[in-house]
TrEMBL record:
Natural source organism: Lacrimispora xylanolytica
Protein name: Uncharacterized protein
């Protein structure tokens, strides 16, 4: 891996036929469908006499682009906003436009820490294979929340001992800490930060 440019805020590398930028600043985001579009970024590099220069680059996002946050969770393009910081992997084939454009392979967005909400309710169902836990009315999907369970989700029994997801059962009362953002789906979906069993 060779360091092509570097600066106080961001660094651009080339690793074989893949380029990578770290700590780039998001200048603009465009998406017609929350999954495709582009992210326009700026990154710094040093010039002569300790001067710092800034380049703009447009990263084109398609359905094959991996979009995740710093916790390795999938996100939509509309979650990336102007002023955020991202790491990105992209093609070294740039257009001659201003700013130059290239296709993004992977973007990691550093999202601000969400506000934490707390819900105490009964488990409606569990999809252990896909890592989903449904809470609310088991007979009405519109009255449920689907929590996504990752390896960062802390799951505890009544005595605060860590347990696997498959120990939990429908009908049990649990306390869930989760983020203040949800998808617009039915049921709405959001990552669970922690789950604690209240009753067996």
């Amino acid at each position: 891996m060779s360091d092509l440019t570097g600066g106080a805020n961001s660094t651009l590398f080339q690793d074989g036929n893949v380029m990578q930028v770290q700590n780039a600043l998001v200048e603009e985001v465009y998406t017609p469908d929350s999954r495709t579009g582009y992210v326009r970024i700026s990154y710094s590099f040093p010039g002569e006499r300790e001067m710092i220069f800034t380049n703009l680059l447009q990263l084109n996002v398609n359905w094959n682009t991996i979009l995740i946050n710093q916790y390795n969770e999938s996100i939509s393009l509309c979650r990336i906003l102007k002023g955020m910081t991202i790491n990105a992997w992209f093609s070294p084939d740039f257009t001659n436009s201003t700013p130059p454009q290239t296709n993004a392979y992977r973007i990691v967005a550093f999202l601000p820490a969400p506000n934490v909400r707390v819900l105490v309710d009964r488990i409606a169902s569990i999809d252990d294979q896909n890592g989903f836990l449904y809470v609310g009315n088991p007979n009405n999907m519109a009255d449920q929340i689907r929590f996504t369970i990752s390896n960062l989700t802390q799951i505890l029994d009544q005595n605060n001992n860590p347990i696997p997801l498959n120990i939990l059962q429908p009908g049990q009362m649990i306390r869930v800490e989760y983020g203040d953002f949800e998808t617009a789906s039915i049921p709405p979906q959001t990552p669970a930060f922690s789950i604690k069993m209240i009753t067996y």
